[in-house]
Specification:
about 10% strand, alpha+beta, 10 strands
Length: about 375
């Protein structure tokens, strides 16, 4: 029995997906761009980006028999109209910790894959047994390019996917299948125009050109993917961001159309949307594991969590509580943590006047948004 896009759309809505489309798997043009990005070294320590060879850009090499990709999106914004203003307010408060909005709730990898599995079961009930595999940021898959080809949006200058009526605050999921489905008539047109707000907003200048990101400078990379020490020249620009960064999305005018999620699974957990840096820096490894169970944050481990928080505390306004918290970990068992704590203490104790001046510059930048 033939599978109709209207049927897929109905099932997608019932499963809480924001949108759904079908893409063909010819990624030959995107493959050249990926190779150029890798050759430039923009992937940093993310060796997995190169490790799988052409499997990322040739789906049938990863999953033999694949001829189509069913692509879905699922929204994750906090679900209230002033979420962007609240995010900027958190970034402007030197005592509070900023966690990327996508990571406040349950681990999206599990949520999206579970729903895709349910979608596959619906399809199977309609057409019978078929070959498939589901993904969500979990394997060498060019998900954003496939979603673009499926008509679900265009790649913004920050390289994320943008949908005109939804913005960019959504996760993308993939279902590779051996079903010969009709792909979208054509990819979505680019509607960024002359806008450069995402480029201008990036604290570290990681968007080195329109549609080109040097991950080595990206705060999301530095606080999540990087396993060792964060380069000292980039630490001040990290501000109070302890896991990921949203600035390019907060600045994007299309995100005024961001939609609330159809599930409460992405609602903030463990008070992460209102926590202070000192509070989080005081968590033991056991508290970290228990409070962040089921969170995507847990994968960086307690050591990198403390590393990130030490940098953020070094960028704070200081004060007795901050200094006491840092000094309490100055002899931490981890050399990585000790080094970042020492940097933070030097920064706060060496020149308070310069620290206050930098804070005022950063606050003015955030208020401008």
């Amino acid at each position: 029995m033939e599978l109709r896009i209207e049927q897929l759309q109905q099932w997608a809505r019932e499963l809480g997906f924001g949108s759904i489309g079908v893409a063909d798997i010819d990624l030959s043009q995107a493959e050249a761009g990926l190779q150029a990005w890798l050759q430039a070294g923009f992937h940093g320590e993310m060796d997995y980006m190169a490790r799988h060879g052409t499997k990322r850009s040739r789906p049938a090499e990863l999953v033999p028999g694949t001829v189509s990709a069913i692509m879905v999106t699922i929204d994750y914004t906090p679900g209230e109209s002033r979420w962007i203003d609240r995010a900027w307010a958190t970034l402007a408060d030197p005592e509070r910790a900023y966690v990327s909005r996508y990571a406040l709730g349950r681990d999206y990898h599990k949520v999206v894959r579970a729903r895709l599995q349910r979608l596959a079961s619906r399809i199977e009930s309609e057409v019978g047994a078929f070959g498939y595999r589901v993904f969500c940021d979990s394997a060498p898959v060019m998900e954003l390019e496939l979603a673009r080809r499926a008509g679900l949006g265009w790649r913004g200058k920050h390289t994320l996917l943008i949908e005109a009526g939804r913005g960019s605050t959504f996760f993308v999921g993939t279902l590779y299948t051996d079903l010969p489905l009709a792909p979208a008539a054509q990819p979505c047109a680019d509607h960024c125009g002359r806008c450069t707000r995402c480029i201008d907003a990036c604290p570290t200048g990681a968007i080195v050109a329109p549609y080109r990101v040097d991950a080595r400078r990206c705060i999301s990379y530095l606080t999540i993917e990087l396993k060792g020490a964060i380069p000292e020249p980039l630490r001040p620009a990290i501000g109070n961001r302890i896991y990921g960064c949203d600035d390019c999305q907060l600045a994007c005018p299309w995100n005024r159309f961001a939609r609330p999620p159809a599930t409460d699974e992405f609602a903030a957990r463990a008070g992460l949307d209102a926590a202070t840096l000192v509070e989080l820096f005081g968590w033991s490894e056991r508290e970290f594991d228990e409070r962040l169970a089921g969170s995507p944050i847990r994968r960086i481990g307690h050591e990198r969590w403390l590393r990130n928080l030490a940098v953020a505390l070094g960028n704070s306004a200081g004060g007795p509580q901050v200094l006491a918290a840092l000094r309490a970990r100055s002899d931490d068992a981890s050399a990585l943590v000790r080094e970042h704590v020492a940097w933070a203490l030097r920064r706060l104790e060496s020149d308070p006047g310069a620290r206050e001046g930098l804070d005022s510059v950063h606050n003015a930048h955030w208020r401008s948004h």
